Amino acid sequence: MKIRLFIALCSSWLIAAxxxxxxxxxxxEALAYAYTHNNQMINAGQDVRDAYAQKWVTIASGLPxxxxxxxxxxxxxxPVSLLPGEFFGGEPGTFIPVTFGQxxxxxxxxxxxxxxxxxxxxxxxxxxxxxxEISALSEVKTKIEVQxxxxxxxxxxxxxxxxxxxxxxxxxxxxxTAEETQKMWAQGMVEEEALEQIQITLANLENQGRNSSRIxxxxxxxxxxxxxxxxxxxxxxxxxxxxxxxxxxxxxxDDAFTAEKNIDYRLGLNVQEQKRLELxxxxxxxxxxxxxxxxxxxxxxxxxxxxxxxxQQWFDSSxxxxxxxxxxxxxxxxxxxxxxxxxxxxxxQNNLTLTxxxxxxxxxxxxxxxxxxxxxxxxSGQNLKLAERIEQKNQIKFKEGIASGFELREAQLQLYSAxxxxxxxxxxxxxxxxxxxxxxxxx
Length: 443
Fold this sequence. Notes:
Radius of gyration: 40 Å
Strand order of the largest sheet: 2-5-7-8
Number of domains: 1
Strand content: 5-15%
CATH topology: Outer membrane efflux proteins (OEP)
Helix content: 55-70%
């Protein structure tokens, strides 16, 4: 009993360890975790497994099939037949009621069926590979979408946390300025309006600070949803937003991009092949099909249920048969279906050409967006440094009575705007690079 308890405890510990949620994650670790635990990724993996199961369903449909059955009948009131009376020495024109057979009957049947030729089955075998490839590529597409979503959510959390920290620092500095201004106003060194300007700015900052806390919480929940963990799960993020942005500037971009590397083009190519096979399948319905079967039957009859006794007599029968089915005339129904399948195939070809053009255009747009994001990143960084210097100069001028409270407030608002713009520029740069990288897939 103790040994069983020990084994059960160990098993529970191993299961818990396997499902343990990490307490901290870098961006790469978050992506790796999401690829395994994200709900969409799990479903995509199930779709691939379902495709392989469907493969065997298709193959098995053309292999030998054996059906068996047992039929038991108890004629509670047997049917009556009328025989001419003269058969039994009676008067002509009279009939004698008789019953045939015994009251109870059991039949056991087994039938072996084998498909010899069927055009649709042969096309189905060819379509298996395409079906599995489409499922696998759909899983890759899901992975790409999850990658973009996780990168976006992860960096949003970092940006929200950094924004919350910056606002808190700004509030502390502004409170100190407000205290100094209060003293200066009490001594008549500044006008009351200067103090009121600072109080307005402080009130707005405190409101932003409360909102930033809510944004951090919501951003974390969004990331947890993508990771496949509980929404209230606490996970520390170990990467730094500025380092991630700087890293995107250094990593090279694939200059040898072609449409064939894109997941949407690859999917379109497989859809085109699928439509071609559907056209071929529709044409195969005009071909004859050939099947064979072997049937074996054993029956027993009795007035009472005695079929399990050894003296019960059983009567065997067997049939070998061949079935040929040849379509002759369908009132042009099959012709219309074939025409529709051909139209669908031509549309798939046209869609593939369109997808190729769209993919190449998306690549150009993504490169342009990345270049713009890099420019904005550098510009916003320079603007932030300038805004910090301007704000510091106005702080000094204000304390010396050279600058007004309005001028100080304008400098502070300019600084806060530059801080926000720099955070957004880092986010845009990371997301633009991710969008560029995910346009192509690695084989």
